[in-house]
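[User]
Protein folding is very new to me. Any chance you could explain this protein sequence and its structure tokens? I have pasted everything here:
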Amino acid sequence: MGNSITTTDSTRLAIDAMAFSTSIDKRQLITLRKYCLRFLSRGGDRPVVKTILRKDFHNALEKAGVENDTLDWEIFDCLFTMFDTTGDDRITPSSLLVGISPLAVTSDASSKLLFAFEIFDVKKTGKVNADEIMFVLGNINAVASSFGDSVLTTAQIELLSHDILFLAQTIEGQRRIDYREYIDDILLHPLSLTFISGASAIQSIENRESSSARRIDKHERESEQYNLVF
């Protein structure tokens, strides 16, 4: 247990497996974000930072249609406690909302990760830097770890984030990237194979390799036909 990386069995505790733990959907999570932002206030150990009180978070849950005394409510309340590192019944809601966002998506890993960035991107800029990639992936990892072992260490998340930005700078010379264009690059990064969704990422690679093989085979057949003609 703890934060060590275990065998491939631990991938079941990552994003895909987490979806089986709650019935919250995208619409509810977007509504929850709206009310969390509305209920932000200053106080606690970090008065300069706007945070949300547990009672206000509960109010936001009700506004989003999450009923009290349900499994969803219990999961959110437990995660609130986990993110309340100061013990003053306050959290920065973006950490929790980003971390739990994959649970609201029932489709593939790409859609889950994209939604996590969209939940983070309140201003809808479509852009993130390395620190913001680390924030998104780190909070997803934190929520995954609450269901068991962490999938990646902080150092691995930092490496993954900087690798993606290095790729973007090499291609486009940018320090901020359009996260929608780099979702697949994040998923296909070697470290992501045991993070976002082991099976989905591996399947993506297999599909890509299969597609490449088909293109090569097609090229060989066309070459043979070309040689027959000439």
